[in-house]
Amino acid sequence: MASKPKFSEAGILEQYRIALDNVAYVLGWKFLYR
Q1: Mean pLDDT, 10 residues at a time, over the chain (34 residues)?
Q2: pTM value?
Q3: Which residue from 13, 14, 22 is spatially nearest to 30, judged by alpha carbons?
Q4: Which residue pairs from 2-9 have beta carbons closer than 8 angstroms and sit at least 24 positions apart in sequence?
Q5: CB burial readout 4-25, b (16+ within 10 A) else e
Q6: Spatial separation of the C-alpha atoms in residues 31 and 34, rounded to whole Å
Q7: Which of 2, 8, 11, 12 has the fewest CB atoms within 10 Å, counting from its CB?
Q8: For 2, which DSSP code?
Q9: Distance between CA 29 and CA 34 in Å, rounded?
């Protein structure tokens, strides 16, 4: 049971990091077009 929360936390952090990368990518394109 102790391993499950840790694994879940790692997965959430990874998804959060990917989402931030996508947001930064989109913002970068908006700045380039502007």
Answers
A1: 63 92 93 79
A2: 0.54
A3: 22
A4: none
A5: eeeeeeeeeeeeeeeeeeeeee
A6: 5
A7: 2
A8: -
A9: 9
